[in-house]
Task: structure prediction
Amino acid sequence: MTEVVDALVARMEGLLSGLEDSDDPARFFLGTYLRTTRAVGAALDRGAFDDTTWVAAWDVDFAELYLDALTAYRQHPATVARPWRLALGADPDLPPEGHVLLGMNAHINYDLPQSLIRMIPPAEFADPELLVRRHRDHARIDRVLASRVAAEDVALQLAGGRRTVLDRFAAPANRWASRMFLREARRKVWATTESLHDARLRSSTAYAGRLADLEAASADRIDDILRPGPVLIRLAIHGFGVTLPCV
Result:
């Protein structure tokens, strides 16, 4: 792994140790994220991306949005954006996979477009060839995430996920659905990023308005996940990702 990703992993390990000591349910998503970050680091070592330096920096920037929200929530919950207040403030008795689902939803839908905007300045958006490379590396991250689904399912079972006989029978379908939802969400993320870019070109006020739209849409999706009933069916109907309203 690159030095910046090594430092990120070390920060995650330190935070995870504290969460585990206090039995904080946030440990489930952070544990999943830590293992995924190691997998991204291994992909970087293999030369799996067009621009290793950019992907490493982006990986760190993206993760820090979550880690900063996690740290702030434990100190002053009201200071974090609503998607993270909902995800981190969910019922502690939810199964581990429930906490992971909420964390993934907040992080991908709300944080990822913001990180892409920070990591792709206007000049790069104006360079079609470079933008294609950025989009291609964004898609390659999907492959890393998809490759982790089965292993993370096992890890969550070991962490204490409550599995009925029906749950075990449905596990292959759930894993397939997880991969599908991740691909769908990240496609929508790219469209959201383009919308945020258009807004920032107009004015800081326009950008703030689109960011508020993103916060509301991301929070609404988490509210929907938290409702009683079959979550996977609702996700199949409404999708995992979010789409910003037209302006």
Observations:
- Residues 163-176 have pLDDT under 50 and may be disordered.
